[in-house]
Design goal:
The N and C termini lie far apart (40 Å). The protein has one domain: Biosynthetic peptidoglycan transglycosylase-like (Penicillin binding protein transpeptidase fold), CATH 1.10.3810.10. Strands 1-2 form a two-stranded antiparallel sheet. The protein has 11 helices and 2 strands, in the order αααααααββαααα. It is 47% helix and 2% strand. α5 packs across α6. With 253 residues, it is an all-alpha fold. The chain is globular, with a radius of gyration of 18 Å.
């Protein structure tokens, strides 16, 4: 009985997210502290290139896999963790999503176990489209910078529905080390003198990864719509990073 109550609570929370509940702050945002730049944008207003790049780079089995992860992959990751070896595969999008919303940035076994349980509940309750929508809205793309609405305007001066394939792929390279990424004063992601070598490798490497046709086909079902009624985007930009005056609103529906 003691185990049933938490599972029921998780199921209720997952159902609320599936019905459109979108909290304005996540555990990761609260841990980072304010000011944070974030605004929700509907998946209908995200570029097909952005959606395809996310699937190709982060989770090619999203939408075709049953559950949040492959059990064999999870076992291999657990074995590598306890043997002190590098992670052989990495987290899926459902795992990353629940980590961003509810958990903390730690690689210990307890957090990983909670993540697996939450991700499983979410994957059976939320559609793949809703899962991807939430992931791209809550992912961190820079110091105190969250979601593709803020990131697309901040780095590229363009809305998320107009992002090119190259810009989308570069943005995926930001995800592993978002706190080390900076905006180029002339626009784009800074890769010049003094850039962290890992950031340079990740961003350039992501931009040169071929996006498979099945990822594009998945994204084609979610072509962006025209921008609708105005919303307000916070004007504050992340501390210790260049500011931009080109931020514009992103539609929520």
């Amino acid at each position: 009985m003691a185990l049933i109550a938490p599972l029921v609570l998780v199921q209720i929370v997952a159902f609320m997210f599936s019905m459109g509940v979108t909290p304005p702050r996540t555990a990761y945002m609260l841990e980072a502290g304010e000011p944070n730049v974030y605004q929700f944008v509907s998946i209908n207003h995200m570029s097909r290139h952005l959606l395809a790049a996310t699937i190709a780079h982060e989770d090619e089995q999203l939408g075709t896999r049953s559950g949040a992860f492959d059990v064999g992959d999870l076992q291999a990751r657990a074995q590598a963790y306890f043997q002190g070896k590098p992670d052989p595969s990495g987290s899926t999008i459902p795992q990353q999503l629940v980590k961003n919303i509810f958990l903390w940035d730690d690689q210990n076994a307890v957090r990983k176990g909670i993540e697996a349980v939450l991700a499983t509940q979410f994957s059976y309750t939320l559609s793949p489209q809703r899962t991807l929508e939430l992931y791209l809205n809550y992912a961190q793309f820079g110091p105190h910078l969250y979601g593709v609405c803020a990131a697309s305007w901040y780095y590229f001066g363009t809305p998320p529905w107009n992002m090119s394939d190259y810009q989308s792929a570069q943005l995926m390279g930001v995800l592993p080390l978002p706190d080390l990424v900076r905006r180029d004063p002339n626009g784009g992601i800074y890769l010049g003198t003094g850039v962290n070598p890992a950031v340079w490798n990740l961003v350039n490497g992501a931009a040169n990864v071929w996006v498979p046709g099945n990822s594009m086909a998945w994204a084609d079902g979610k072509r962006p719509l025209e921008r609708s009624a105005s919303q307000t985007l916070p004007t504050a930009m992340p501390a210790s990073a260049p500011t931009t005056t080109r931020a514009q609103p992103c539609p929520k529906a």
